[in-house]
Amino acid sequence: MSEPALEIESLSLSIRGQSILSDVSARIGAGETWSIIGANGAGKSTLLKCLMRIHTGWTGHVRLHGQSVADLSQRELARRIAYVPQPGGDQRFPYTVREFVRMGRFAWSGPFGTAHPGDADAIESAMKRADVEVFSDRALGTLSGGERQKVFIAAALAQGSDMLMLDEPTAFLDYRHQAEVAEIVHALNVENGATILSVTHDVNAAMLTGGHALALRGGEVVWTGPTGELACERILGLIFGATFRFLDDPVTGLRLVAPQGARTPS
Q: Are 24 and 220 in contact (CB under 8 A)?
């Protein structure tokens, strides 16, 4: 494993006396891709929000390149980690695409919100990379869910961080937009060496992404390892408490996963 970009040690969170995360530990190498997987309610999104300090009150230790996140201001944290929230919901943003992407530069602004010399280049580069230039002057609320998700990613890219955390980035998106989002994130990892943490409940998506997986069940880590090892009845049963069938993909050579009740087309 490469040098750790992120170390999570015994992270636990309780809300109103209910344990949400319990003793979560992981060591994420710089430039690695990790999928955080598990069933609905396993604590995946909550873990990301703890790492971003959206949720507070957790116990344990989190270190970013060896430095405790507790010692970082929110602005310093935003310079190092970019966060893309889950798509969907009743999100109303009275901004154009360019205005929204510009907000991703807040961590670099000077006193009283003055512009940073690198803002213009960072904004243009982020919009180009996320392929949202064509509707840069449109209101965010006029875009489709897939288009809007690419704008959220552009805003995250504009932050200039070397770590990207995504919460179900392709949920509710059609297949074309799922592929586009996956390509953007993959290129950021391969070309820029960015460290990627992505929440998903889709085992096939995690295996196709590659890299490593951290599996949660009931707020606890039940398995970690290379995503290629996920196509195993024992491991998936441990993570999801269900039974599965396996289908060989002739293109990728991977064993893809289907619920036991799924039918094979005749």
A: yes
